[in-house]
């Protein structure tokens, strides 16, 4: 009944499954290297088999004559013995004869035995020689195989070394090429950077020059502007004074009066006095009146501050033709 | 070259994903073989137990004696389990009711429950086998596809595409498929074999339950007639 085996555990199945997998793994690992290492050895054996055949042939050829001579001897012996036996049968009544015969037979037998022995010895000798020859041939063949294998090994090693060298060379060349490319790239980069830097420097220099030029130009322009403004102010003052100037009658044409004018900060006239008289008091008075009536000169405030101070004091030259 | 192309070397040099796939497949194969061996033993024992119990049952032994042979608390398997469940129910119901139909119904019900338990027991883990059988080729294929993707990625980086640059990748990728098939083929074969065996055994159990039911029925009919008469 199913009473003694209640449950089937998992221990044994697990063990079996692991063993199965390990077996498959071992088979797959072991069989592969051996299967792959066999072909070269097979080829060596095949290569030497030809020479083995020839050496054994030679050995056979060497043993053949001896074997044939041995066969000759044995057949001769057999014939003589038969003849003797027939004779003995025929002369059985004569005891001595038979004894002699027997003796001779014995002798013959001995001879035959000796001959056989000799033949055997010869055969053995031949065999030994053949054996030796074969052994030698085998040794030679082994040596040959060994040499061949060594040669192959050497060739393989050389090939491998060559392969290795070539690969290394290739790697080296590639690396060099890469290095070269990298260097070129770097040089290019460097050059570009330098160029850029030079360009930037040149640009900066040009910029600074430009700036300097511009500054100078600006300064010049400022000065010019100031000059223009100052000129404009003088002109304005002159126009205003001319408009306000009433030239008295009976003034000689060469009358010339210089009026010194001092202005306040906002353009009002502090003082206007005759610096050099024209000799005609009416003319002098008329000049001072003209200045006073034209005041204030508020245009002074529109001048640049740097030149304001310079134009706070100036002289005006009055002549009947114009004012300078 | 011989060394580089050997299977262990290829497995060791495979990429991480392919190695993970191989490990997964190895575990699946191991577990499926554990299940195969375990279920085979279970099936063989169940078959043997069924044969022995049937021989004993039909040898003409008294059913009460047969029932009393094993202690009540001892767990029984297979046909014996069904027999004991039915007979216990029969013995319990017999003093309580006079209706043969009620008794037979109860017996049938308890035998059906026992049969269902037996089915559960026999088919345990067979689903795992089916899962391994159907999924491991796909897992192996995934490993192969991943490996070949890697080979093409390495090919795109190489200067010139030779067979030697692609061969190891593809070989190692194909190992994944080989392992998937290696796990799947035994699982398929043994799943079919074991499930057929299981359904055959369950059919036998069912036949036995019907026979036992008819015996009880006959018994009740006889008793009913004697009590009536």
Strand order of the largest sheet of chain A: 2-1-3
Number of individual domains of chain A: 2
Helix content of chain A: over 70%
Please, how many helices of chain A? Answer: 4
Helicity level of chain B, as a percent range?
A: over 70%
State the oligomer: heterodimer
DSSP strand content of chain B: under 5%
**Number of structural domains of chain B:** 1
Which structural class matches the secondary elements of chain A?
mainly alpha
By DSSP, the count of extended strands of chain B is 0
Sketch the topology of chain B as an H/E string, one letter per element.
Answer: HHHHHHH
Count all strands of chain A and give the number.
3
Largest interface: A-B, 22 and 32 residues
The biggest beta sheet of chain A reads:
3 strands, antiparallel
Largest sheet of chain B: none
From the spread of the alpha carbons, the general shape of chain B counts as: rod-shaped
Over all CA atoms, what is the radius of gyration of chain A?
A: 73 Å
How confident is the prediction overall: mean pLDDT of chain B? 86
Radius of gyration of chain B: 29 Å
Uncertain residue segments of chain A: 1-5, 35-56
Q: Supply the number of helical segments of chain B.
A: 7
What this model shows, in words?
The complex is a heterodimer of chains A (324) and B (229). Chain A is mainly alpha-helical. Chain A has two domains: 2-154; 223-324, Fusion Protein Consisting Of Minor Coat Protein, Glycine Rich Linker, Tola, And A His Tag, Chain: A, Domain 2, CATH 3.30.1150.10. Chain A has four helices and three strands; from the N terminus they run ααββααβ. Chain A has helices at residues 11-90, 95-244, 281-294, 305-308, and strands at residues 257-263, 269-276, 313-318. A three-stranded antiparallel sheet of chain A has the order 2-1-3, with helices on one face. In chain A, β1 (257-263) and β2 (269-276) form a beta hairpin. Mean pLDDT of chain A is 74; it is low at 1-5 and 35-56. Chain B has helices at residues 7-13, 16-57, 63-69, 78-93, 100-122, 126-157, 163-228. The radius of gyration of chain B is 29 Å and the shape is rod-shaped. Chain B is mostly helical and 229 residues long. In chain B, α2 (16-57) packs parallel to α7 (163-228), α5 (100-122) runs antiparallel to α7 and α6 (126-157) runs antiparallel to α7. Chain B has one domain. The model of chain B has no long low-confidence stretch (mean pLDDT 86). The interface between A and B is medium-sized, with 22 and 32 residues. Chain B: InterPro entries: ExbB/TolQ_transport, MotA_ExbB_proton_chnl, Tol-Pal_TolQ. Chain B: It is a multi-pass membrane protein. Chain B: Part of the Tol-Pal system, which plays a role in outer membrane invagination during cell division and is important for maintaining outer membrane integrity. Chain B: Keywords: Cell cycle, Cell division, Cell inner membrane, Cell membrane, Membrane, Transmembrane, Transmembrane helix. Chain B: It is found in: Cell inner membrane; Cell membrane.
């Amino acid at each position: 009944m199913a009473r003694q085996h209640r449950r089937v555990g998992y221990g044994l199945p697990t063990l079996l499954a692991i063993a199965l997998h390990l077996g498959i793994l071992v088979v797959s690992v072991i069989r592969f290297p051996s299967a792959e290492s066999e072909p070269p050895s097979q080829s060596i054996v095949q290569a030497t088999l030809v020479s083995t055949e020839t050496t054994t042939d030679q050995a056979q050829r060497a043993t053949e004559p001896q074997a044939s001579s041995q066969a000759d001897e044995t057949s001769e012996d057999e014939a003589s013995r038969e003849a003797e036996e027939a004779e003995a049968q025929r002369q059985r009544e004569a005891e001595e004869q038979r004894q002699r015969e027997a003796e001779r037979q014995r002798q013959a037998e001995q001879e035959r035995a000796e001959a056989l022995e000799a033949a055997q010895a010869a055969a053995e000798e031949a065999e030994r020689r053949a054996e030796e020859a074969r052994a030698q041939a085998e040794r030679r063949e082994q040596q040959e195989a060994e040499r061949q294998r060594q040669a192959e090994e050497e060739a393989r090693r050389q090939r491998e070394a060559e392969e290795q060298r070539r690969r290394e060379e290739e790697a080296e060349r590639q690396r060099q090429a890469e290095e070269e490319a990298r260097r070129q790239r770097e040089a290019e980069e460097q050059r570009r950077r330098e160029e850029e830097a030079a360009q930037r420097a040149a640009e900066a220099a040009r910029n600074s020059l430009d700036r300097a030029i511009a500054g100078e130009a600006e300064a010049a322009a400022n000065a010019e502007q100031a000059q223009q403004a100052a000129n404009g102010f003088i002109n304005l003052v002159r126009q205003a004074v001319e408009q306000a100037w009433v030239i008295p009658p009976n003034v000689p044409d060469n009358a010339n009066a210089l009026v010194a004018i001092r202005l306040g900060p906002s353009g009002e006239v502090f003082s206007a006095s005759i610096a050099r008289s024209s000799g005609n008091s009416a003319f002098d008075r008329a000049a001072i009146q003209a200045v006073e009536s034209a005041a204030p000169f508020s245009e002074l405030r529109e001048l640049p501050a740097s030149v304001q101070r310079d134009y706070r004091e100036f002289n005006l030259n009055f002549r009947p033709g114009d004012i300078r | 070259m011989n060394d580089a192309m050997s299977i262990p070397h290829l497995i060791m040099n495979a990429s991480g994903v392919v190695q993970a796939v191989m490990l997964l497949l190895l575990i699946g194969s191991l577990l499926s073989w554990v299940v195969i061996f375990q279920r085979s033993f279970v099936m063989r024992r169940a078959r043997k137990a069924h044969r022995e119990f049937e021989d004993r049952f039909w040898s003409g032994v008294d059913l009460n004696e047969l029932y009393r042979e094993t202690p009540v608390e001892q767990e029984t398997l297979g046909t014996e389990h069904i027999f004991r469940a039915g007979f216990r129910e029969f013995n319990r119901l017999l003093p309580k009711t006079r209706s043969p139909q009620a008794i037979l119904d109860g017996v049938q019900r308890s035998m059906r429950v026992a049969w269902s338990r037996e089915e559960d027991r026999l088919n345990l883990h067979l689903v795992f086998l089916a899962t391994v059988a159907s999924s491991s080729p796909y897992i192996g294929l995934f490993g192969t596809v991943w490996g070949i993707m890697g080979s093409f990625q390495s090919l795109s980086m190489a200067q010139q595409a030779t067979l030697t640059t692609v061969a190891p990748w593809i070989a190692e990728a194909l190992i994944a498929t080989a392992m998937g098939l290696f796990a799947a083929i035994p699982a398929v074969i043994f799943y079919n074999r074991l499930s057929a065996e299981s359904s055959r055994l369950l059919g036998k159990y069912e036949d036995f339950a019907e026979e036992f039911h008819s015996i009880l029925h006959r018994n009740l009919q006889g008793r009913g007639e004697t009590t009536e008469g």
